[in-house]
Design goal:
Blueprint (H helix, E strand, L loop, with lengths): L8 E6 L15 H4 L3 H9 L1 E5 L10 H8 L12 H7 L8 E12 L2 E4 L7 H8 L9 E6 L2 E7 L2 H4 L14 H5 L6 H9 L1 E4 L2 E11 L7 H5 L3 E4 L3 H9 L18 H11 L5 E6 L1 H7 L3 H21 L5 E5 L3 E2 L6 E2 L3 E5 L4
Parallel strand pairs: 1-10, 1-11, 9-10
Antiparallel strand pairs: 2-14, 3-4, 3-6, 3-8, 5-6, 7-8, 11-14, 12-13
Helix pairs in contact: 4-10, 11-13, 12-13
Length: about 350
């Protein structure tokens, strides 16, 4: 858990920025290799430690790690994130229902080739999502890009489905990945009905990650502080809404490397004037890691330092500034990995 202490605090979560050292980068991590004069200054004047945020019996994912960072007890951290993403999108889910994430994926030679609709534009993905065939008690919601949610009636068979994240199972046989879901009548029909060809590629809507309704404590209940959260990623917005944290509107920012970092910095500086804690989540470091783009990750980290961290560092006074990764994301494998992450602060933690 992050100790927010008695001082006004800005927590910057650079999603998945930490990873192991890479030979191609002179045996340095992307964060070490990147030119980051402001982050380096903060390290030199303050503290740089390595911390693990995920519980021993959980895999390192953003939901688990961020909730742990914010002090939520392990026993009430959800198994999967789809319900929190539903909250983020104002989708009502009742106690008799579950939510599943539903990626638009690409298949080649009957194997999972892309977890994020590679080869499709955002416009294509938006259009295709409106052509999804559903039946029975199911509800399908397009969230953004390749991300979708499927709401369906709760059953023991669905609750017991194994968790098979597409980004962790690239190259695997699609029939093997869906064999358990194909045993459930309604889900089987959904999977079979939503395989299609587009621009000479094979695609499908892949449901995974069952999530039930959960209630989380508010940030103020846990810490006695007023908090504002600046973010674009659906899961982080969902955490914010579930924990009754203020979510300011962003006009130009995204959950990828094309985000407007200066806009986010400006909102952070404004929000810390009226709040005890401001949390800024930057998701591009994770997305570029999943794409296995080492140079792109280094370049984006340098942008974060120049356009975001330096703006906050140079325009705030008497503020505790913490820069942390929630979990490791490897640009070699494209996967989340276990291990400690960087936590950098402008004073001793």
């Amino acid at each position: 858990m992050i100790n927010f202490g008695d001082k006004k605090t800005i927590l910057v979560i650079l999603d998945g920025v930490s990873e192991e050292r890479i030979i191609e980068l002179n045996n340095l991590t992307p964060l070490e290799y990147a030119f980051t004069p402001t982050i380096d200054k903060i390290k030199w004047k303050g503290d740089h430690s390595k911390i693990v945020f995920y519980p021993d019996n959980r895999d390192p994912d953003s939901m688990t790690c961020i909730l742990s960072m914010l002090g939520v007890e392990e026993s009430i951290i959800p198994r999967n994130r789809a319900y929190l993403e539903a909250i983020s999108s104002n989708i009502n889910v009742n106690e008799e229902e579950v939510v599943m994430r539903c990626n638009l994926v690409r298949i080649k030679d009957n194997k999972l080739e892309s977890f994020n609709g590679e080869g499709l534009s955002k416009y294509d993905m938006d259009c295709l999502s409106h052509s999804v065939k559903i039946g029975g008690d199911m509800r399908f919601y397009h969230i953004s890009g390749y991300r979708n949610l499927l709401v369906l009636k709760k059953s023991r068979e669905i609750i017991e489905l194994p968790d098979l994240p597409p980004h962790e199972n690239m190259g695997r046989n699609i029939e093997s990945l869906t064999k358990d879901a194909l045993q459930i009548e309604g889900l089987s029909k959904f999977i079979k009905d939503n395989k299609f060809a587009f621009n000479d590629n094979q695609y499908m809507f892949f449901p995974w990650g069952v999530s039930e309704v959960v209630e989380l404590p508010s940030f103020e209940e846990l810490h006695g502080k007023r908090c504002s959260l600046i973010c674009c990623a659906e899961i982080v917005k969902g955490i914010g809404k579930a924990m009754r944290i203020r979510l300011p509107d962003l006009k130009n920012s995204t959950a990828d490397t094309d985000t407007d970092l200066k806009e986010k910095a400006r909102i952070v500086i404004e929000e810390i004037e009226t709040h005890d804690v401001v949390i800024a989540h930057i998701n591009g470091t994770d997305e570029v890691s999943h794409r296995k783009d080492i140079k792109g990750k280094v370049s984006f980290i340098e942008r974060v330092d120049k356009e975001f961290i330096s703006e906050i560092y140079n325009n705030t006074r008497d503020i505790r500034l913490i820069i942390a990764s929630d979990h490791q994301t490897s640009t070699i494998t494209g996967r989340h990995q276990k291990g400690p992450v960087d936590v950098i602060c402008n004073e001793m933690l």
